[in-house]
Structures are given as structure tokens and as C-alpha cells.
Design a protein that fits this description.
- This protein has 428 residues and is α+β, with helices and mostly antiparallel strands.
- Helix content is 34%, strand content 15%.
- The protein contains 13 helices and 18 strands.
- The protein has a 5-stranded mixed beta sheet with strand order 4-3-2-1-5. It has a 3-stranded antiparallel beta sheet with strand order 6-9-10. A 3-stranded antiparallel beta sheet has the order 7-8-11, covered by helices on one side.
- The longest helix is centred in the middle third of the chain and has 21 residues.
- The chain is globular.
Amino acid sequence: MEPRIAEQLERRRTAVAAAWSLGDKVVLIGAGAPIGIPGRGDLTYPFRAHSEYFYLTDRNRPGGVLAFDPQEGWVEFVAPVTAPERLWSGAAPLDPEVVTTDAMKPWLAARRGRPVVWLGVAPAASDGGDRDRTEELRCALDAVRRPKDPVELDRMRRAESATRAAFAAAVPFLRDGVSERELQVELEAWALRAGGDAMAYDTIVGGGPNSAVLHFPPSARPFRPGELVLIDAGAEVEGYASDITRTYPVDGEFSPEQGELYEVVRAALEGGIGRCRPGVEWRDVHLGAAMTIAEGLRSCGILRGRPESLVESGAAFLFFPHGIGHLVGLGVRDAGGPLAERRGDPPPFPNLRIDLPLERGMVVTVEPGIYFVPALLEDPERRRRHQDEVAWDRVDALLGFGGIRIEHNVLISDGDPEVITADVPLLH
């Protein structure tokens, strides 16, 4: 293992141990096991070790367990390499100093009678331990995981570099007759060529009305002149993700209406990034973006009323129906959610993925959008509720417009936030 990685693993484990108050409890963190694909013989889904295990071991091998005894420290039990693994996948033998899971049974026997708390993936034979205590320890671990260390940031920057190359290769494919899937293939091929290990999540490509579907899986539908194309994609490097969204016109130029709404989204993006500073509540970043979108839609003649009222009533969220972003890092959704004391108290905005104050070292996505989603905008109850706030004749004319989303990854620092995806340019 590289010295810098070993150094960070030691720092992470020390920080986590300090964050826990265990008494005589023992903690076990399971990597998990491959999950079989139903009906596909012995095929499995691609394996990803549980993030809690990976963060503290930097090992993406199934079957492992990281154990912590507050009286004696950490022990990593690694699943032995089997003969079938060597035959079918060419798995390399483990280093001789590695402790295998064969030693785990006597280790636990020596601690019989002490409470055990499972994190990561608990084996099916386990009762899972004290669930309240599990949640408490998980929240403390999440708090340690959120600020990114130099090893993590290096991997994220490499993932961003691969994603940047992918977007640069994909943009020339935005022409009449090219399909969403063809663009996906080109983008993903370049992400891998440029150093990505894999895609961090399923690539989203939506053309025309499909761009209003938040997570649209690419289809055989061809692009047409005058349409918008929304691309949301990111490479992964050594477990760490990039997450970038851009929206482009097929023929290289926005129509006046498209350009006007794009600038509203861009203003919400820039305002959101500017608010990303230590101590700022994430819900306030979201609220600021929602206010910008409400004001922009009012200026475009789509909404009526004061921006504050349009946000409070939910009229603005007919067009901005998701949260402003989420934590990104070890996976595309990283240690998110609300603070422990806010659980069970949902924030006053739809689909907000995190609800906590920002702190130095966090990396967040900022990804405002405006969408014309028929499922929302054709709903009779929503039309009744917002009959005086929405220019429904304008909306009806725009139901095939699609959607616009722009997304950057932002590192929170002591000074101005750092946009680590700035090299993937926006349209001007």
C-alpha cells in the first residue's frame, strides 16, 4: 500500500475511534458480498464494497470485515482468495501478513459476552446488533467521512479529468439524427480512455421532451434540430466519483426562449456556488436557488407573484422539483442525509438530499434546473392549487420543451469555494 494511503487510513481510523464512545462494545464493519442477478446463472452485479468498509480499508474485496475493539484497536479480516477466483478472474494471492476471515471466529470468541454493533453490511446470520446504537455510530462515522482528505480529492480530480474528456468528445455528436444511446456510447468510451475505472452511475442522456425526465436512461430516439439535450454523467476513479450535468442545443444555438431559461438556471447555479461556504445551511443554498428560479420564471411570464410567495406555495417547485444537490465523493451519493438531530423532521423543500451546515472539505454538487414535466403540469389538483400563480396557457405551449439542468462539483474551503469541474465549460 502506498505510504500516503496508509497514512490517511490511520488518520481516518483514529478520527472515527475518537468520534465513537463505545465502552465495552465491539464494532464490526462488513464489506458485503456479490449479489446474484436473478435468473442469470452465476452472474452477479458489479461488486462495490460498502462505503463504510472501503473508507476505512481502501479495499474493494467482498467478504471482508473490519473490526474495532476500543481496548485493543483495529483488525482487518480479509476473505481468503479461493481457487475458483484464481481460475475465473485471475485474483492475486493475498500478502502473507494479511489476517484472513478464518481468524475472525476465535477473535470474536475471545470477546464473548460483549455487545457487538454492525456497520457496513452485516452477514445474514447476524441479528444486526443494537439498531439504535448502529445508527448512532453511523452518524458519527458519516461526520468524519464528509470532509475529503488529499487522497480522496486526488481521486475525485482524476475522475473529473476523465469526465471532462468524455464531455469534450460527446459534444460534437450533438447533431440531427444521432441517438441518445449513440452519444452515451461515445461519452462512456472516452471516460474510460481518459482514465476512468467505470462510470460512477448510469449515464443520463435525454433529448427533446426526454430532457424533462430527471434520470432519463438513453434510448434509440434521435436528436432533432431545435431540441435541447441534457447529459448527466460522471466517471469513477478508485471508488470516487465525478458528477456533471450540461444542457446543450442540438444545432449549437439556443432559441430565444431556451436561452432565456438557460440564463435563469445559470444564475441559480452561480448564486448557489457563491453561497457554498463553511457554516451555511444547505437548505439556505437550496432556498436561494429556488428564489432565483422563481424570479426568473416570473420575468419570463410563466409565474405570477412575488418570488417569496411562489416558493412558499410550492409553485416554483413545479418547475424545480428536486434538491439543489448532494454530497459527492465515495460514490455519487456520499454520507448525506440530515444531521442526526434532524432525522424525522423533513426540510420544507421537496427532495432535499442533505440537510446540514456546510463545512470545510466537503464536496457538494450544485445542480439547479427548470423542467416542463407533463406529469406535474397536467395534474388537475396542481392546476387548481396554483391557478393564479402559473400562466397555464404559456405552460401548455411549453409541455414539449424538455428541461435544463447545469451541475458543478464544489469543494468547500475557508475562502471562495473551488469549482473542481470548472474545466467542463458552460455555454455562453
